[in-house]
Here is the input.
Amino acid sequence: MSMAQLVETQTAPRRTKRWRGRLLPYLLSLPALLVCIAILVPFVTAAIYSLQRYRLNLPYLRGFIGLDNYIDFLSDPAFWNTLRISLVYTAVTVIAELLLGLGIALLLRRPTRFHNAVSIMLLLPLMTAPAIAALMWKLMTNPSFGILSYLVGLLGVHDFKWASDPSTALFTVVLVDVWVYTPFIMILLLAGLRSLPRQPFEAAALDGVPASFVFFRITLPMLAPYIITASLFRLLDSIQQFDIVYAMTQGGPGDRLMVFQVQAYLEFFQYTNVGRSAALLMILWLITNILSNIFIKNWLRLRARAHGHA
Amino acid sequence: MDHSSLAGRIFRGIALALVLVFFMFPIVWILLMSFQSNEQILRIPPRLLFEPTLANYEALISGQLKTAAGNLQLTFMRNLMNSFILSSASVILALLLGVPAAYAFARFKFKLGETIAFTLLSFRFAPPLLVLLPLSLYYQQLGLNDTYFGIVWVYQLIALPLILWIVRGYFEDISPDIEHAYRLAGHSWREAFTRIAVPLAGPGIAAAGLLSFIFCWNNFVFALILASADKQPVTVGALAFVTASGIQYGQIAAAIVLSVTPTLLLALYAQRYLVEGLSLGAVKG
Here is the structure.
């Protein structure tokens, strides 16, 4: 910093140039600021909508109603269903992906050529658009020709309806989510594992410490920042899941998979109830905002580790 | 951690094989399906050996699907084109807006900079519909609905935080002393920026650009809300295609293959940078 100022005074002794130098960072970030504002305007608008009775099909009824949209949710079973299914979906996907991702990362820990090739191949599901991934699984679970329907048939389970049966719909969508996003956790944890210092492990090996002790007392605690960051990433995305659910079942069958954003989407476009849709999204935002504050703290710590000591 | 016992090695081998089957099978299977006719797809039990056909791809590329009920027009290539236009334009715009800002955030510690950087980061995690739904109403008033510009503008929500945070990390890793020395030799900051800083951060900028391209390409909900048929990218187009064509499973599989091939190839090419990109620069691979 002081060095920069020094340079400034030496190369630009004239007042105007110095002034321009002080202004420079602001000029450079002006475009990014504009984008920020462009995001904040609709965000504030949404907050205002959520306090209004606002239906696109009944514009003359529009008016301020305070927190009524929110209060209505309290006695609305559809809202509680949405909250419940969103939380269940998030919990199940994040736990499954974390366990599976950690397991795979441990399997691939040693940087052999084969392990590296496998970890690169596992990137492919992650780089597939989630909406397209849902279509792939829809083809594979088609009741008349889907290969998975055929395979479970061989196992003696006939008439397995996958996403179109209320009792297996959640399982099916979670399966797609796990297919797409487990590699995300795996790749972050693998990078974390490989960056851990080697001394504690060498010392433990010399002392003949049992593997389970090494795992729970050395590996896991040292990996914790990576696990927390990866899980929070997934938690934040998962509670807002839209693409997979929408492409697979549009929230159905019935209201079985009516997660927050799908419900808000239908509320807006099908029932044209802007006020309710906005209120629903504000509640989701409140949840994600709390989570993302925790996330950013952990993320900054990791980032400082990656860049600060470089 | 060297499990050299035989049982351990067998266990690890089996586990890895299962992992590979689970994650690779869908891609391989859809690829195989895309070379089959509908009759071959509907055959039970499914066969691994079949006479491959390119008919599905021909139908998609020519835009004509001959069915018993007559000719069906396919707009899929249009969707593919839209994806290329939208993603490339978004990345170029995000690089133009983001790289100078990332440089400013890395070199000058100023309050507004931190505020912008963190606002963009926190909106990366806010529900996209929260911004999109009011925006769709604004767009209708402004006449931006269903324009490439309108969609590219919203795609900045995806691309800009990514570029800002990754490129910022790269700039921070470069010692400012080189630029200072260059400036002491009488060059302007602009020359220091374009001739020293940007080339040194080049790999990071390229990686951030490639990743933004992938994420823009893979996005679904933005275009679902803001684009109608002739501006839709493949993600939305493929879903519409499934609804429209109903039972043309071979073509659906071929459409899926065409939609994911560009991003999968880019991902393989840029895999070295994916860890860093996916964690927004917090984890280095």
